[in-house]
Amino acid sequence: MQGKGLITLVAVILGLICLNELLPTWYAGKIEKQATELAGDNPEKYQKEMARLSKDTLNLGFTELYYSKAKEKEMKLGLDLKGGINVLLEINQRDLVNNLTNYSTNPILIEALDRTDQMQKNSTNPYIKDFFTQFDLVNKEKGANLKLADAEIFGNTNLSEIKFNTPDDQVKKIIENRIELSTGTAYEVIRTRIDKMGVTQPNVQRVPRTGRISVEMPGVKDIDRVKKMLQTSAKLQFWEVQQLQEVYPYLEQLNAVIATKGDSMGVAKNTNLVNLLQLNTLRSNGVANVKLSDTAAVNKIVNSKIAKDLRPQNIKYTQFMWGYKPEAGDENNLVLYAVRGNINQKAPVDGAVESARVNYDDLGRIVVDMQMDSKGSKDWKTLTGKNVNKPVAVTLDNVVYTAPNVVNEIPNGRTQISGSFSQEEAQDLVNVLGAGKLPAGAKIVQAEVVGPSLGAESVDAGMYSFIIAFVIIILYMLFYYGGAGIYAVIAITFNLFYLMGIMDSVDATLTLPGIAGIVLSMAMSIDANVIVYERTKEELFAGKNIREAYNEGFNFSLSAIIDGNITSLLTAVVLYIFGTGPIQGFAVTLGIGIILSMFTCVLLTRVLIFSRLEKGKNLSVWTKFSKNIFRNTWYDFIGKRKYAYIFSGIVTVICLASIFTQGFKYGVDFKGGRSYVVRFDKPVIANEAANSLEKQFINKEGQANAVDVKTYGSDSQLKITTDYRIEEESLEADQDVESKLFAGLKPYLPADAKISGFKDSGTNNYGIVSSVKVGPTVADDIKSGGVIALIIALAGIFLYILFRFKRWQFSTGAIASLVHDSIVILGAYSLLKNVMPFNMEINQDFIAAILTVLGYSINDTVIIFDRIREYLSEKKALTLEGLFNDSISSTLGRTFNTAFMTFLVILAIFVFGGENLRGFMFALLIGVGFGTYSTWFIASAVSYDLLKKKGVEGSAKGLVSNKVEKPKNRD
Question: pTM higher than 0.85 for the full model?
C-alpha cells in the first residue's frame, strides 16, 4: 500500500517521543513506591528514604533519569486525583477604577460605581463595560454632560495619555487596556507568591477580559493558608488610630438606637452593643475587645447605613478594623480598632516595600522587619513625627497587624511589624510583601477543594473503571471480529499510549473526567475499525477476495470516518472553550483521542493488516458466532416513522411538562452557593442532619437559610449545600460557614472531634472530603456559558452537515434529532431528580454530558447520511423511501456494535468510576440509547420528509414511486 513507509516512520517517531515524555512519570512513581514500601506509615522515615533514593540515577543510554527532574516533568494530576484546591480569583474592579480616577469623590462617578456593583450581581459582562454603561446613564439623568477625560474622572496624573479633549470612546479603550494590564500584573504577583510557597506543579492561568485568574494547586493541604496568601493584596498602609474616648459617645448613642432599629441593622432589638464590646477587658490601643462569636453582630451594627448616618463629624470617615488575630493569652477575643480615615480613604502612608525579612525582637518574639522605598520613607517620617506618644496602626488589607505608640520620629523608612506571629505566618507575610502588591484587592469567587483521601479513592475508581472498560473492548472486538479484532485492539493500545504521551508533552492535567474522556475516546475511536470491518464484510459477501474487500472497506469508509470524527471534534472544541477545570481536561483527552484515532485506527491498522495480507496470510473479519449477525437484515424504518413521531412526541411532551413544572435541581455552579461532601465514621440519616444544620444557618433576618442535605455514595457520607453568606467572598465567611457546619454535625461526629480535624479529613475517617464554592456572579457566567456552548455546538454541526451533504434537509434532520436527545436527557433529570440515589444536578458536568451526547449522536447520523449520499448515485432506480431504508439497514451492524460497546463502557464507568462521575455517566447512558434511536427514526425520518416535499434533484432524479422495495441479497 502507498505511504506504508511514511506511516510506519511516523508511528515509530511518535512512539519514541511519547516514551521519552512518559518515562519521568514512571521513574518518579517508582522511587515514591519504593520509599513507601520501606517506610510504611512513618512520614519521617518516608522523607529519609526519599532523600536517599532521590540521589540515585537511571541511565538508559538516550536519557538519564533522576528524581527531582523526573518529578518536575511527570504527568500532572488534577485535584480530583491528587487532592488540593482550585480557585477562581477576581481582581476587585472597583478598586482598579478608583485607583485610575485617583480616588475621586465625584458624585456621578460614585453613583455609577454603586450601580455597577448592583448590576454585576446578575450580569455576565466585564465590570468595566457595565461601569461605562452606568456612567453614561447617570450622566444623562443628572444632565451633567461630564466627560470621561474630565480631571475628576480619568483625566488625572495617573493617566498621562488622557488629555482634556480625549473622546470618550478612546478613553474607554485606554481604561480597558489599563485594567487588562493590571490583571496581568496581578497574575505575575500571584504566580510569584505560589512559587515562594513551594507548591509542586501549580497551574495559574488568566481568564481573558474578565479580571479573573484561575489557580490550581494539587496536593496542597493547608487550605486556609493558601486562601489567605492568594487574596492578600499586600496593600500595606499606616494610619492614625483614634482612642476609645473619641468614639465612646458615638457607641453609646448607637447602643440606644438598636433598641428601636435593630431589625434594620441586622440584629435583634435587645442586643447590647456596649456589652458586646467588653470594654473592661481592653488591653491595647483598640476601642473594643469582642468575642469571636460576636464579631459578625458587631460588623453588622457598625457598618449598617443607620450607624453611618449617625456618625458625628469627628468620626465621619473612621474605619473600624479588626486585629490580625487574637492576642496571646486572650484566644477567644478579637480587638476592634478605630482608624482615622478621610474623604477618599487614602492612607497617610501607602508604603511600597523594598525589602522584608523575618526577625526577632528583644523579647525573642517573631517580627517582620521591613524597609520602605524613598516616598514611603518620607511619608512615614511625617506620620511618626506628627504622632509621637500616640498609636499608629500598621494594616495589611484593612486588617490591623499592630498598633504601637510612636516613641519618636522615624526618618529612615525602617519599621517593624509584630503580631504574635508563628514562623510560618511571618514567612508568608514576608513572601507576600516580597512578591509585590496586587493592583487591587482579590477575592475568591469560585473554589473547589478536594481532600487527599478522596483523591486517592478517585484514582482507584478511575483506574478500576478504565481496566474494566478496556477489557470489555478487547473481549467484544475479539468475539465479534476475530482476527481483525486483534488489530483493532493493537490500534487502540497504540492510541492510548500516544494519547498519554501527548497529554504529558503538552502539560495537560489528567483529571477523573479526563480518565472518563480517555475511556470514552477509546470506545468512540474503535468505531473507525467497526466502520471499516463492517464495510469489508459487505464486500466479502458481494464476492470480493480478501485483499479487495479490505481495500474497498478502508476506501469507502474514509469519508464517513472523517465526517463522524470532525463533528465529534467540534463538540470537544466547544467543551474546551466554554468549560473550566475538569471539563476542559475531559475535552482535551476526548479531542486528542479522536484525532489520534484517525491515525491509529485507520492508517496504522491498514498498514498492519495489509502487511499480513501481502505475506499471503488470511485475516478473518468475523467469527462463526458473528458472521451472519445483521446479514440481510432489513427494516422499514421510514414506513414506521409515524409511530416513532408519536412515541417521540409523547416523550417530548412529558419531558417538557416536567421541565416547566418541576424544574431542575441546580448545582452550586449554576445557582451559586457552597457545597460540602462530609464523611462520617458511622451511618447518618440525611433528614436528621438537615434539621440540625438549619438551626445553625440563620441569616440576618433571623430566618433559617435553605440547607440541602442528601446521602452521597454511601449512608456514611452526605452532600450538604447552602447559600448562607454566599454574597461574601472573604476567608472569614468561609471559616464561619465551616464552623457552623461543624457545630450542626457535631452530634454525628466522634466525641473528641475538633474543627481542625473536621476540616482536614486526611488523617481522620471523618470530616470534609471535598468542597465547592461558587459566587452568584460566576454562577450566572457558567449558566450563560453553558447555554452559549450548546447553541454554538448545534450551529457548528448544522453548518458542517450542510457543507458536507449540500442539502439543508440533512442538516435540519440532524439538528432535530439532537434537540430531541437534549430534551429527553433534560426531562429525565427533571423527572428523576428526587428519585435516583445519585447526583442528578444540572451543572457543568451535565453540560459536558449533553455536548458529548451530541457528538456521539451526530457521529451515528453522519454514517447513515454518508451511505445515503453514496446510494444516491448507485441506486437511481430506488424510491427515496427505499433509498433511506437501504442506507439505514446496511449500516445496522456498525450502529449496533458501536452503540452496544459504548454503552457497556459507559456502564462500567457508571458502576465502578466513583460517585463523582455517576450523574455524568447516567446522562451519557440515556444519550447513547436515545441517540441511536433518534438517528434511525428522527434524523433520517425528518430528512426524508423534507426531501420528499421538495423532491430529490440530481442523480436520484426525484421520486419514482411510493412503493417500499426490499433489497435482494448482495451475495
Answer: no
